[in-house]
Amino acid sequence: MSDSDSGKQRQFSLTSSNAGNVGPNRSRRSSWSDSKKVWSVGDEAENYSDSRTLILQKLNTYYRRIKRQILAFQSLTTGLFPNHLDPNQKVGHVVENVFCAIAIWSLRQCYCKIDNDQGRAHELGQAAVKCMRGILICWMKQSKKLEVFKGEQSTKDALHSKFNVLDGNEVADADEVGQLQICAISIYLLTLAQMITSNLEIIFSVDEVNFVQQLIFSIERAYRTPDYGIWERGSKYNTNTCELHASSIGMAKAALESMNGFNLYGDKGANWSVVYVDVDAHNRNRTTFDTLLPRESASKNTDAALLFTVGWPTFAIHEATLVENTIRKCIKKLRGTHGFKRFLRDGQYTDLESKEDRFYQATEIKKFDKNECEWPMFFAVMAINGIFKNNQSQVDEYLAALNPLLKRTTEVTNNSSSSFRSFTGMLDQGTLID
User: Fold this and answer.
1) Can you count the helices (H) and strands (E) in the chain?
2) Nearest residue to 248 via CA among 180, 328, 148, 194
3) Which pLDDT belongs to residue 407?
4) Polar residues: which segments have biased composition (predicted)?
């Protein structure tokens, strides 16, 4: 056989081998339509390792929990979440709503790392966007108050920290007491920056960009603005007295750092969608915050809110010694069997507290000594801080303390279901306005 004949034979064999790939049954990469197929562990077992299957199973478990325990209660109109302690479940607090949005967004970030997420990353992301925009719209209704507050820093002109979850208006029977919370605006701005960085579109117009800039201006003077703190109680004595809180100042400092030069339109923005911070105001907040630590305020020796400030989610200080001293003091004075006390002699939600009086008498807090409520959620906060510090022993310690306190459920409770049905019933009847 000649060389030309052997070459033709090789060319024919190559052509024949490739002929099977021509036509509708040829092999190809998975397309967009393939990702819409329902995921099944049995179908994916051949294509994915056991570790990947376990990851998907865990994510699906967390997804069902988020749907059952958080998203089932999201308002259809405003996107806000009601406070479970409110008897009518019509009041939503800003700080609590931001943490709900963080939980949803965190799971969304996990789903973004995998293929074939069945649209869950988009669903969770839009639920978080709806909550964050709901808070923004509620505040924009009070823009006149914000303009006055920037000049006077008065409690009566402060942005409200709780709203009606049905229509986004101010709570009907709420006075100005407890509304001034610098920490609420700060943690909102900090979370807003993180979510926009993760490619979520939350800010839609120039008016919203300008309003966010005004929010930044309102917290720049946190170092000299007494507020009610994250617990809405003011001073330790609960006598309707505001004071400087290290947690509020620290959260404001972290929010200013995250917002300085930040583009609210993300990668699609221009120079007119960038917000800025007064550097001198940031330095004053930093100096005041470092001076107050490890103390919370003039009346509070320490406070569990500092765990949010020196650790997750704000990480407001980077000096390791000061962070450890603050956390050690919180553990020594506030940790109990069932969680952390918010602060010493905190009488809220105890049986000894009067249900009729909003404020205490001058010497009334003495009876709450060693009778404070303990909050298990701070065990979870300490476990999360351990994850960020790569301290596995701390994670194991606080998860072991938290697990016996968890109430394990498989379905939405009857009360929750009935309250959600009543909410949708009010929507059908058009009774959104009080």
Assistant:
1) 15, 4
2) 180
3) 84
4) 9-20
